[in-house]
Amino acid sequence: MAHDLNLTLIADSQADGQWQSSNDGLTQLGNALADQYPVDFSAGNITLNSTQYRSSYTFKPSAALAAARTLILPAVKRPFVFHNSDATYAVTLKKTNGNSPETATTIPIAAGAIFHGYTDGTATGLFGAVIAAATGGGGDANAGSYYDFGAWFEACPAAGTVIGRVRIGRNITVPAGMAGSSGGVATNPGATFDIDVRDDGSSIGTISVSTSGTVTFSTAGGTSKAIAAGSEIRFVAPANSPAEATVVGGNFIILATVD
Fold this sequence. Notes:
Elements: H1 18-34, E1 36-39, E2 46-47, H2 50-54, E3 58-61, E4 69-72, E5 77-83, E6 91-96, E7 104-109, E8 113-120, E9 126-132, E10 146-153, E11 162-167, E12 172-174, E13 182-184, E14 193-199, E15 202-209, E16 215-219, E17 225-227, E18 232-236, E19 250-258
Parallel strand pairs: 1-3, 2-4, 3-5, 4-6
Antiparallel strand pairs: 5-8, 6-7, 8-9, 10-19, 11-18, 12-17, 12-19, 13-19, 14-15, 14-18, 15-16
């Protein structure tokens, strides 16, 4: 087995510049193990090249984000850390083969969370865990763990009815855009089916099912949502539920993290 850091080495029989080669290699190694790389997301999503990815160990946004972003990583084998230091928006780490249709691995990192993991040198190999950044004092021992909750229905819900209720047991954060959430239906609706997600009566986002069955998630204002322990989450059917009642077999999971 070998690393993939592409360090400068002293060549066999190298007579001149040995000390410079050694110093260059040690500098590259030190950066790969201990340096920080500020990622500039101001223009949108970012794709790191191999040189950028090898140059540091910890990666983080260089400034406050204007929206949720994606960081695409190259096919390099190495461990790394990503700290989403933004206070509002999620950053999704992504490894992709770049094909169409695409095969990719994505991991959403909620605002304030830290990802510890590695890439294995393949096009889609991305592995690790998301944890919450320590803020001092006590806190939940499960901070940073995923917290999934959701709702389901079999028959088409009547207009404006509550599809499901969930009592939240810990302080959690839902990432911007409900990144990482998933859902589907057995039979597509005859008109767009928008489920209102409410936190103690206040709308925090929408789960939308199109007539083709595509499910999209969004949060109010496009920002992450903090939900306090003890809050009741309600999933409310749209007032314009299709009159023909075609949509059946809905199931939806929202991915959050423990604060």
